[in-house]
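Our preliminary data section would be incomplete without showing what the modeling component actually yields. Below, a chain of 123 amino acids is followed by its predicted structure, encoded as tokens that our downstream tools consume directly.
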Amino acid sequence: MSTQLERPEVDPPEGPAPTELVVEDITVGDGPAATPDSTVDVHYLGVEYETGEEFDASWNRGQSINFPLRSLVAGWQQGIPGMQVGGRRKLVVPPELAYGPAGGGHRLSGKTLVFVIDLLGVS
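Predicted structure:
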């Protein structure tokens, strides 16, 4: 199966950053669903909520990435299970579910993050 995906665009968010995880399906897939124990094969794009600036994207490297879901930030651990292969989902992740409060030592600490994730496979 060769699905040619296009790099997502993220519209600048409006209003204050949410304090809870926001999960929005852009496209619902029709393949197997991810579970909390899954290893996921994804393409993703991440931007800062406040500035809209991109901080990371697998698209820039030209290849998807494979991760055990349990090793990712809490926002992904909570926001990806139930997503089906072939789907595209947007997650708006508050600092507590991303890299922690400001001053936490990570360059994204204290920031609300927006991810657009394409689920390519689960195992």
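The chain has one domain: 22-122. The two ends are 16 Å apart (CA to CA). Preliminary results of this kind motivate Aim 1 of the renewal.
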